[in-house]
Amino acid sequence: MQMARKRTGKMASSEEMGGSAAELESLVRDTDFFRSLVENGSDAIVSIDENSTILYANQAVERVFGYEPEELVGEKLTVIMPERFQADHFESVQRYLETGERQLDWNNIRLPALHKDGHEVTLSITFEEHSYEGKRIFSGIMRDISERVEQQRELERQNERLEQFASLVSHDLRDPLQAAKATTAVAKAGDEEALEELDEIHDRMERLIEDVLSLAKQGQAVGETEPVDLREVSERAWSTADTDGATLTFGESLPTVSADPERLEALFGNLFRNAVEHGRSSAADDPATLTVEIGPLADGEGFYVADDGTGFGDTDADQLFEYGYTTNEDGTGFGLSIVAEIAEAHGWEISATESASGGARFEVRT
Amino acid sequence: MSERPLVLAVDDEERVVQAFDIWLGDEFEVLTATGGAEALEQISDEVDVVLLDRHMPEMSGDEVLERIRAEGYDCRVAMVTAVAPEFEIVEMPFDHYISKPVDESELREVVGRLAEMGAYDQRLNELYRVTQKIATLEAEMTDSRLEHHEEYSSLVERRDRLRAETHDLVGEMERSELDDVFEMIGSEQ
Question: Is the full-model pTM beyond 0.90?
Fold first, then answer.
């Protein structure tokens, strides 16, 4: 009640007027009204004294920070602050008390805070200062905007991908387009053979478009996942990929993974195609010589796909997953990008190394 | 120029150099190469203009360009490529950047212009190079990317300085002819 009197002109004046019973009743009602507003508002409100000791916290702190209000009162404000900000906080409060100089903007600033369970939440905070019983009180009105921040990040990621796609599509189509124009010119000049090559060039452009589309689709967030049997889904992928009589084998105790089965099949399909297209040296063209093995990672947290082919050679492992990177003239360079997109969409990590027999080995950490 | 200018066309796609030969053959003498090593064998003091693909197996066009310059050839070089130009082109010693696909009329126009540039003053050639690089970067990149790049702003400064330096020189020449050249560089992208 006292707090309300200090803070609102309306109540101070009603008291000055002497206070009839009705007025007093109205004052109590108003006070309850404001107390209830502060208590039950959706924004968390925390008030501290000059020593950063928490004097008051409303109900909403439970939702934002995971603490009950009474757990916070009496504690230092730093309990809800990530460690890296703590020293700075005390310093800037001290400076403000001495000089009145504000280190931060007090309105709607974005700061990370520490939840009771240890994760960080992003808050939009407005600071207020008032005096109460001769003491300086500082209050923070805080709104959890973690979700908004995450949405913003996702939007930025999407924009980035869009930019990449745009540049990719425009530039990767330039080469075959030039080849088509050139080949047409040569054909017009009388070389009939050139005419037939046009079909192949057009197919190359079509593959490129299909792969870019697939890349765009596979990169979208994974919806429902279910426990997937790796053996079953990889055998399905093997039968549809053009594996030319190469052999698929399985290691002991394959883990079951939680995945979108269709996308996982696409991941395997692209890895198999990569193995068949790049794993064999062009000299030894016998398809039966290539074996692809799927097995569990040593720690059980994922699986590997390894082949006994020619391996990556001088290829930079970092470049492998880049859009449009290929060492094969007819390749589009999207196969492994699609693999990486699918893994990423599941929240997995994928890496490439050399297999025991010197071939390619991809590890998917789930 | 009494003799026909000599052009060296380099691209790993054989059909592409064949087409360049067909497109340019009536006006220029054309040599072709389908790889970097072959290009370096063909290059000589007689070559006026080199058309150079960037993305080639074994030896990249960028490397061929470097070697051509290292061996002291100061012919005009146009990169003809599907590779998106990044800021690294600022320091590359070429004269013109053509984005694939290029067709007959554009190619003839650029090669014809480059063949003429050989007769002009060095600073004018430098001005041409810088102006064309600016146009190439501006065509490819967003304003905000350009703004934040020192290479770009130093390129613009260089162009302005060269413009001032060559002003008197240009006065002696047929101004309209030169205007045409620079207008074309800016407008074709």
Answer: no
Q: Which of A129, A144, A159 is the last residue of a domain?
A: A144
Q: In whole angstroms, what is the distance from residue B170 CA to residue A284 CA?
A: 63
Tokens of A110: 């974005």
Residue among A163, A165, A178, A188 with most chain B CBs within 10 A, to mutate: A178
CATH architecture of B1-104: 3-Layer(aba) Sandwich (3.40)
Domains contained in chain A, number: 3
pLDDT digits (tens, 9 = 90+) for A188-197: 999 888 988 9
What whole-number distance in Å separates Cα of residue B44 and Cα of residue A92?
A: 71
Of A144, A170, A197, the domain-final residue: A144
Residue A32 lies in a domain: no
Same domain, A60 and A169: no
Whether residue A29 is contained in a domain is answered as: no
Q: Find out whether A320 and A336 touch, Cβ atoms under 8 Å.
A: yes
Contact B20 A182 (CB under 8 A): yes
DSSP letter at A248? E
Q: Which of A323, A348, A317, A318 is nearest to A335 (CA)?
A: A323
**The amino acid at A66:** G
DSSP letters spanning A27-50: HHHHHHHHHHHHHH-SSEEEEE-T
Cα separation, A77 vs A61, in Å, equals 12
Query: Helices marked H in chain B — which ranges?
Result: 14-24, 36-42, 61-70, 104-117, 122-140, 143-147, 150-172, 175-187
Question: CB–CB of B84 and A186 under 8 A?
Answer: no
Task: Give the tens place of pLDDT for each residue, A96-136.
Answer: 888 888 877 888 889 999 999 999 999 999 999 988 888 99
Q: How many Å apart are CA A43 and CA A140, to the nearest integer?
A: 10
